[in-house]
Every structure is written in structure tokens, then in C-alpha cells.
Design goal:
With 161 residues, the chain is mainly alpha-helical. 75% of the residues lie in helices and 0% in strands. It contains eight helices and no strands.
Length: 161
């Protein structure tokens, strides 16, 4: 069994406890909080991916010569298909049931449900739209072929790839 499958199994085993612990939150509060957290996670991934891809090449000319900047579609796809939040869900599940004085950890169930919602939104929501995004961006093979073509031209003209 994969680690992702184990996390979903553990979450499923805690589902009854989670639902009973969420009686202080309405369904609309849960939906709104889940939507906000999901949007923040997805937008943050996009904001981070472009500087992480292009900034090192702007700061280091030797890196830019060795490994030229990829087309904008590549970091977009990396951001779109990025981490699905399983680590966050595992961390949420690791939150203790009680604090040192024995009282319940505040909003533990709410945190776990939000982490689970983010996993579902990024896994199911973005997963179902992935074929459309790939078509809209152009085939990665075509992008890859154009990158190979650029590299080939550089090599023919005596420049390092």
C-alpha cells in the first residue's frame, strides 16, 4: 500500500470522529474555509514555481548556459500538477488529540478536514481538468521538441547547450 493510500485509510478511519467533532462548524463554514485554503495553496504554488524556475538562471549565467530557461508552460504544468497535500494531511493527522493539560487540541478536527479538502480539490478538481490544461498549453512533446531544436541550433553554432 502506498503512503498516500495509508493516509486516506487513516483519514477514513477517523471520519466518524471528525464529523462528530465538527458540530460547532456549519457546512457553509467548512465549505468556505476549504475553498479559501485550497485557493491559497494553489495560488501559492503558482507564485512560487516561476521564481524558483527562472530566478536561478537570471542570477547565474553559468547555470543559464548549462540549463537554459524552460518555456513558461513547463513551470505552469509543474505548479498545476504539484504536491497534492498528502504531507499536510499527514501532519494534520499527527496533531495530538490533547494538549499538555489534557484538554482537547483546539480545532484539530477542523484542521484535518481542511487538509483533506485541499487534497480532494487538488487531486480530484485539478486532476479532472488536467487533460484540458495540457491541450490548452500545447502538447509537452511539442514544447520539448522546440526546446531540443533550440539546443540543437546552439550546438551547431558552437555554443554550449
Amino acid at each position: 500500500m502506498s503512503s498516500e493510500g495509508l493516509i486516506f485509510l487513516l483519514t477514513g478511519l477517523q471520519a466518524h470522529t471528525l464529523v462528530s467533532g465538527l458540530k460547532t462548524h456549519s457546512l457553509s463554514q467548512l465549505a468556505m474555509a476549504g475553498a479559501i485554503v485550497s485557493v491559497v495553496v494553489i495560488v501559492t504554488r503558482f507564485i512560487w514555481m516561476y521564481p524558483a524556475t527562472y530566478l536561478p538562471r537570471l542570477l547565474s549565467s553559468s547555470l543559464a548556459r548549462r540549463d537554459p530557461s524552460p518555456p513558461w508552460q513547463w513551470p505552469f504544468m509543474l505548479a498545476f500538477t504539484g504536491v497534492r497535500g498528502i504531507v499536510s494531511l499527514a501532519a494534520a493527522l499527527a496533531i495530538p488529540l490533547a494538549v499538555d493539560d489534557g484538554s482537547p487540541f483546539p480545532n484539530r478536527d477542523f484542521i484535518i478536514v481542511l487538509a483533506f479538502v485541499v487534497v480532494l480539490v487538488t487531486l480530484v478538481g485539478q486532476g479532472l481538468t488536467l487533460p484540458w490544461v495540457v491541450r490548452a498549453l500545447g502538447s509537452p512533446m511539442r514544447v520539448s521538441a522546440s526546446a531540443r531544436s533550440r539546443c540543437s541550433r546552439r550546438q551547431r553554432h558552437g555554443r554550449k547547450p
